[in-house]
Amino acid sequence: MISIKPPEPTPPLRGLVLAGGRSTRMGVDKSTIDYHGKPQFEYLHDLLIPYCDAVFVSVNAEQANQLAGSRFNLIEDQALVAGPLIGILTAFEQQSAHHAWLAVVCDLPLLSEQSIRKLVENRKPDKMATVIWDSDFRFPDPSLCIWEPAVYPAILRAIEAGTPYPRTILMTNDIELVEIDNIQELTNANTPGDMALIRQILQTGKQPF
């Protein structure tokens, strides 16, 4: 008699707002800038809630002190790696390596619930990650990505190899790529000029030329 192995259960999904950067180009903590009537990290946090069993905010030590006692679940960056990978790695190590992590960077003020929903609906749990195309449709954009538990060993291997870069990890592993409907949502706000442009877009509803 042939034994058929039951399918593996889909790992539950947790949300992660990556807010722990130093914001040196902006001059102020860009995760606290108000574009939508609340700090940007809170706006993204609330966008993720309907799609995750819990949502966390990845923060540095100073932010952890400022937000202590708030309604937010905090993960203080402690992984021994620099750069944008630190929040994702810390989430796997401190919280759960058995959950998938829907991670979003904090400098996407135009990101909508529609794009998050499309990513989740097109999730492929049997792959290492489900991620959006970048604005040129050339590379995966880790700004909005579901990192499956299976990618955790690949992250550790990349760190050991001296290439702890989210995009490199995505490009060298089996992933699912998703095209969002409005590529303008990938507009980053990293400088005061970017912030002014974002505010103009939000006010007028279109990109200035």
From TrEMBL:
One GO term in the molecular function aspect is: molybdenum cofactor guanylyltransferase activity
Q: Catalyses which reaction?
A: Mo-molybdopterin + GTP + H(+) = Mo-molybdopterin guanine dinucleotide + diphosphate
Keyword GTP-binding in record: yes
Q: What's this protein's name? A: Probable molybdenum cofactor guanylyltransferase
Q: What is known of its domains?
A: The N-terminal domain determines nucleotide recognition and specific binding, while the C-terminal domain determines the specific binding to the target protein.
Q: Which gene encodes it?
A: mobA
Species of origin reads: Larkinella rosea
Q: Where does GTP bind?
A: L18, A19, G20, K30, D77, D107
Q: Which Gene3D superfamilies match?
A: Spore Coat Polysaccharide Biosynthesis Protein SpsA, Chain A (3.90.550.10)
- Which compartments does it reside in? Cytoplasm
Q: Where are the transmembrane segments?
A: none
Which family, according to the similarity comment? Belongs to the MobA family.
